[in-house]
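Tokens help. One example:
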Amino acid sequence: MPVREADFRAPWWLRGGHAQTLWSTMTRRKPALQTRRERLELPDGDFLDLDWLGGGQGPLVVVLHGLEGSIESPYARGLLRAIQARGWRGVLMHFRGCSGEANRLDRAYHSGETGDVAQVIEILARRHPGAPLAAVGYSLGGNVLLKWLGERGGDSPLACGVAVSVPFSLSACADQLDKGPSRLYQAHFLRDLKASRLRKRPGEALPEPLRTIRAWDERVTAPLHGFEGAEDYYTRSSSAQFLRHIRRPTLVLHARDDPFMTPAVIPDPDALSESVEMEISQGGGHVGFVHGQHPLRPRYWLEERIPAFLDRHLRGR
């Protein structure tokens, strides 16, 4: 079945999408991890920073973070630690300007920018011709990954991919972030986006008002990246329309109570190619999926389910 119920169940002590989301970002201790940084110089004069796990052999897993995420994001560190525990190689790709140092060009990154991911994966495929490649994307990074997999079809160096808590319809998600308690997440993202922009361009007068994600995308994201406006950006960059073109085994994990969007954005089964498996859970929030019987010993289902899927498709390659 292309769409099935996930086996994740929210524990008694952490019910609801907001609780799951906030625990994972505010309460979870940052998993210990040692990484090595590599800077890739790009043909356009900019750069990308990669953070590598030490050691490992065999499969290589590329991790793509979410909006304003980085190697410091607990979900990214948790997955990299799970990859390391399997004895695999892992690397996190920072989107432009997200590694702690502002990128050189005026442009940055966005939900539909697949060129940088394509360059990184092509470079890794050339460097490691005998190693099977996989990629895992969270939220914005998941949207980028699914879009790129759809654009490439059967011509992809990846053996498989995983996407988590994806904003399949960017317009609908922007609207949801401006409603009720979800405005708290919107305010958090806007604060980070503005701070990131001002670190790169100190003293720049940002256009006003910028009180919503849609306004930011209308006045900043769209003009910086060649879109006519926010709606043009959302229409061209949303990953839902690319799912039927994916030709590599791909797992999509999503929760119905994700506070960044409504269940209406979840694609219908007929929008998926035969290569896409979608697992939907009733709970889990946005990149949450915390379980376990006791709050002092939480477990993180994504770090169990994702490696299991990767192992099934990378074993023996």
